[in-house]
Design a protein that fits this description.
Layout: E1 8-9, E2 39-44, H1 55-70, E3 73-77, H2 85-97, E4 103-106, H3 111-117, E5 126-129, E6 138-143, H4 145-159, E7 164-171, H5 174-190, E8 195-202, H6 213-225, E9 230-234, H7 239-249, E10 252-257, E11 273-279, H8 281-293, E12 300-304, E13 311-313, H9 326-339
Parallel strand pairs: 1-12, 2-3, 2-4, 4-5, 5-6, 6-12, 7-8, 7-9, 9-10, 10-11
Antiparallel strand pairs: 11-13
Helix pairs in contact: 1-8, 2-3, 4-5, 4-9, 6-7
């Protein structure tokens, strides 16, 4: 299928959430009508669902912002255990048929379903997070996760005392390889003496790599036994187990996607969450909703990187600024990525 729009970069981040608009967005059903203005944004969650304190919750924050801003109806739908692509197709089609617009699949697992459904509802704008799906009415919301992970690696290299740090990936897939590649490069560029221990929890999402805190905890405990004193998890809900294990062992954990230092469910462990590699999924979700509301729906590949504040590194924990040289090193790395002198690997 030919690409119908060129790569577009959209400035998002904290500032994007302050944008103001005044009317309800149009919606459409299977007939292609745009007369139904009762319903707006709908999101379908990835594995782990709402409450993961990370990826899905970031998407929900974008939905909440859009709902508050525009006063329209919204929907957020949980995944089911062991569901198939056909189940995802049915979910997306049902939301579109009900008149929600846009309809966003949160996670690359929605790729096949969205490709199958989008063409059947040409008046509905669809969005997919973390995957590229070509279609005249599809916006692919992708991120430079490797850039945020590079900054996390810089922080880890500055914070470690044992010169051993850990990476826990939820599922062994190309998306999570980006997190690992950036993290390793950031560590090695900062201090080549630091060793990175890497482990993936499962080979497929169906095995629970993104939804099993117990698996994350066990992996983290194994790395801690090998003297790792900074642990970075890109594992969705499973990352909570990594953070818990780090806190119990009194070593640093680095969160992902959302600022996990500020998550209420992780409050018992917050003192050991050094930082988080941020991925503004909420900003991307809101930006797509706003574009539909403004009758200028985004389509094609929308890339959210460090230059547009689509990714970044949290500085919420006061201890972040107390570690000698850490903040300066991260800021220097940000400048290098922005000006192109640092090329971050994705594999």
């Amino acid at each position: 299928m030919r690409r119908i729009s060129k790569l577009t970069r959209v400035a998002v981040g904290v500032a994007s959430l302050g944008l103001v608009a005044t009317a309800c967005g149009s919606t459409s059903g299977e007939s292609g009508s745009s007369d139904n203005k009762d319903r707006g944004l709908a999101i379908a969650y990835d594995v782990g669902g709402k409450g993961d304190q990370s990826f899905n919750d970031a998407a929900y924050a974008g939905l909440t912002k859009a709902k508050d801003q525009y006063g329209y109806k919204t929907a957020d739908i949980e995944p089911t255990e062991g569901e198939t692509d056909a189940d995802k197709e049915q979910r997306l089609a049902s939301l579109a048929k009900q008149g929600y617009n846009p309809v966003i699949g949160v996670g690359f697992a929605y790729g096949p379903a969205m490709k199958a459904v989008a063409s059947k509802y040409p008046k509905t704008t669809f969005g997919i997070v973390d995957s590229v799906v070509e279609g005249k009415n599809v916006a692919s919301l992708v991120f430079a996760e490797e850039q945020a992970s590079y900054l996390a690696g810089v922080a880890a290299a500055k914070a470690t005392k044992s010169n051993i740090v850990g990476f826990v990936g939820g599922v062994d897939v190309p998306l999570i390889h980006k997190f690992e590649a950036g993290y390793k490069q950031g560590v090695q560029d900062t201090n080549p003496k630091v060793k990175v221990l890497s482990q993936y929890l499962t080979q497929t999402a169906e095995e629970g790599g993104f939804s099993s805190p117990d698996k994350g905890k066990a992996a983290a405990e194994g790395q801690i036994e090998k003297k790792a004193d900074v642990l970075y998890a890109a594992a969705g809900l499973s990352g909570q187990g990594v953070i818990e294990a780090g806190a119990k062992a009194k070593v640093w954990a680095i969160g992902v996607d959302s600022d996990q230092y500020k998550q209420a469910a992780l409050a018992p462990y917050k003192n050991y969450i050094l930082t988080s590699a941020l991925k503004d999924v909420g900003g991307a979700v809101y930006t797509l909703a706003k574009s539909v509301h403004d009758d200028k729906p985004l389509t094609g590949t929308q890339t959210f990187d460090l230059k547009v504040n689509g990714v970044g590194l949290a500085e919420t924990n006061p201890e972040y600024a107390k570690i000698p040289g850490l903040k300066d090193a991260v800021n220097k790395a940000k400048d290098g990525i922005d000006n192109g002198s640092i090329k971050v690997k994705t594999e």
